[in-house]
Amino acid sequence: MWVITSRHKIVFTYFRSLKFRILLVLLAVSWVPMILMSASILKSYQDRAIAARSTEVQNQCMILSNQLLSYNYMEDPSTELIDGELAQLSSLYDGRIIIIDQDFRVIKDTYGLIENKYVVSEEVIRCFKGETTNQLSEKRFIEMTVPVRAGDSNKVQGVLLVSVSTDSIWDSLDALTNNAWVFTLVYGILVTVAAILLSHLLVQPICRIIAGLHEISSGHSNEDLMVKTYAETVQVSEEFNKIVTQMRALDESRQEFVSNVSHELKTPLTSMKVLADSLLTQEEVPNELYKEFMGDIAEEIERENKIITDLLALVKMDKKAASLNIEKKDINDLLELILKRLRPIAAKKNIEVVLESFRPVTAEVDESRLTLAFTNLVENAIKYNKENGWVHVSLDADHKFFYVKVMDSGQGIPEESLDYIFERFYRVDKSHSSEIDGTGLGLAIAKSAVLVHKGAIKVSSELGVGTTFSVRIPLNYIA
């Protein structure tokens, strides 16, 4: 049974690291070509040396064949001059020369072993047909046959069967090989050391990024991360800084949200406590005052309840899309029902609410969440409208999306507030926020409901003219 220790973990981590992989690449790029080049050079030397030796011996044999004919050695193999040259040539190349006549009889063997015997082999037969052979035997001998022919005559009068030792070539090759491997080893060690250092230097920027991330994650640094060594490290640093900026903004937003929630929930409680204390400190409270205070307390309780209800709605909106109840719904009927519920509120300010539908629209939506979104948009259009104004809701669609616009003739939204109106508890006109019923969460709920449907919401407004909210939602929900 294997026991994984911290030392093993460190080793495994190193083998999976970028430094180790860069080291492997550098070693492969340096060692493999170097070994292949050394082997190629040695093989080339071997081939060229053997080819040169073969050519040299073949030229000497051609000269010898001409002398054999000149001195009529094929008929009378007793010429001392030729025997001397044969001995000198065989000694020079550490080889053996056999002269064969037309009857396949050996008339001369420099080793003196098979004279007057017959040699009938494939190479000799091919040579009598005028074909020269040349090959390297397994015993490291160059074996060749050279025809002996007179002048320009094609008639072959004999064959020189020559065996030449290549021991000197192999000795030189062995010495060269040893030198090559020593050089390769020394060079390889230097390259390996250089590769280790280079791999360390190449990953240093990554190590600095990791160290910077550790400092930031541990809370010891609030500075932005920036490693400018490579273009990639600059991009990583910039993207990380963007994420950190977003996280900081999100954290500030959460803190502000908690502060706003605390304030919004505490305000009604404070009012109720003041009203209750006023009743408790008075010994005889008139019924009219008692009813008035209790009515005010009931209003504060209702306000508290509405804030809590909207907060719960926001929590549901923030849940994953898996909790959506997606069904095919008639959007025309959905909007008609929403406007029907809100028309009594609009009638109090004599506001005309109109729905304009350009075509029947059916889409895959969560009815309850989408109803809440459009209800908040239309309700806001009514609440922030002027007396005898109007609210115009339009519905249209194409092959991919359906579009809903909520337009009003209200007071409008200042341009500097347009970027913040979807934030939770944000009020455009804080001085009149207490006069208009609401929690400041309606638009945040509407945006969350639209986004969870993979849609988009935009706003345009002009002070004193009105506001338009444009919503786009896919006809088919894609999880």
Automatic annotation (TrEMBL):
Its main location: membrane. It catalyses: ATP + protein L-histidine = ADP + protein N-phospho-L-histidine. It comes from the Bacteria. Its EC number is 2.7.13.3. GO terms for molecular function: ATP binding. The chain crosses the membrane at residues 20-42, 180-203. InterPro entries: BphY/WalK/GraS-like, HATPase_C_sf, HATPase_dom, His_kinase_dom, HisK_dim/P_dom, HisK_dim/P_sf, Sig_transdc_His_kin-like_C. Keywords: ATP-binding, Kinase, Membrane, Nucleotide-binding, Phosphoprotein, Transferase, Transmembrane, Transmembrane helix, Two-component regulatory system. This is histidine kinase. It comes from Laedolimicola ammoniilytica.
